[in-house]
Specification:
It is built from 5 helices and 3 strands, in the order H-E-H-H-H-E-E-H. It is mostly helical. The chain has 2 domains: about 15-120, 50s Ribosomal Protein L17, Chain: A, CATH 3.90.1030; about 145-199. A 3-stranded antiparallel beta sheet has the order 1-3-2, covered by helices on one side. The protein starts with 13 loop residues before the first helix and ends with a helix.
Length: about 200
């Protein structure tokens, strides 16, 4: 039973797990995509995403904090110079996990984990699509006068649309009736012409 198990220990001691995740995070930052088991990929996602968020604020303190996790100067430099600029507009969700076929030796579930903004396949015309956040934000409050003007304008637009619709429908009906009459005339004329030819 789980019983409140929040961290997957991955069958390792705390020091071994910490070192392994730091190495995997460094590899992900340098190569932008790595292949590993599904369990390790999920653990790595929880480990590396807070570090990427921390890199958006480029201060000495945040650099030192990230270095205490990664223990790699080159990875910290890449993270703060390149990756933080690419993910500046993204509010989280910097990585993507895609499942692969099971490993042949032990049938372990495999996956690759990648940085979302570095995948060229999912971009449109080489530029990543920017998602709009769906947060509710308190904007400027409209005064009572502006609100009533806006509602009255909206009501007038709805009235105009409802008045235009019947007129448009009548025009379509008249056009259809005219087409039917023309078709009837043509069918009446064709037998008469055939009769004339027979005479």
């Amino acid at each position: 039973m789980r019983h409140g198990k929040k961290i997957n220990h991955l069958g390792r001691t705390a020091s071994h797990r910490k070192a392994m995740l730091a190495n995997m995070a460094t590899s992900l930052i340098k190569h932008k995509r790595i292949t590993t088991t599904l369990a390790k990929a999920k653990a790595l996602r929880q480990y590396v995403e807070p570090l990427i968020t921390k890199s958006k604020n480029d201060t000495t303190h945040s650099r030192r904090t990230v270095f205490s996790y990664l223990q790699d100067k080159e990875a910290v430099t890449i993270l703060f110079r390149e990756i933080s600029e690419k993910v500046a507009t993204r509010p989280g969700g910097y990585t993507r996990i895609i499942k692969l076929e099971n490993r042949l030796g032990d049938n372990a579930e495999m996956a690759f984990i990648e940085l979302v903004d570095y995948n060229e396949v999912y971009k449109k015309d080489g530029v990543a699509t920017e998602r709009k956040t769906t947060r509710r934000r308190g904007g400027k409050k409209k005064s009572a006068g502006e609100a009533t003007v806006a509602t009255s304008d909206a009501a007038e637009e709805v009235k105009a649309e409802t008045q235009e619709e019947p007129a448009a429908e009548e025009a379509v009906i008249e056009q259809g009736a005219a087409n039917v009459e023309e078709a009837a005339r043509e069918t009446e004329e064709t037998p008469k012409e055939e009769d004339k030819k027979e005479d």
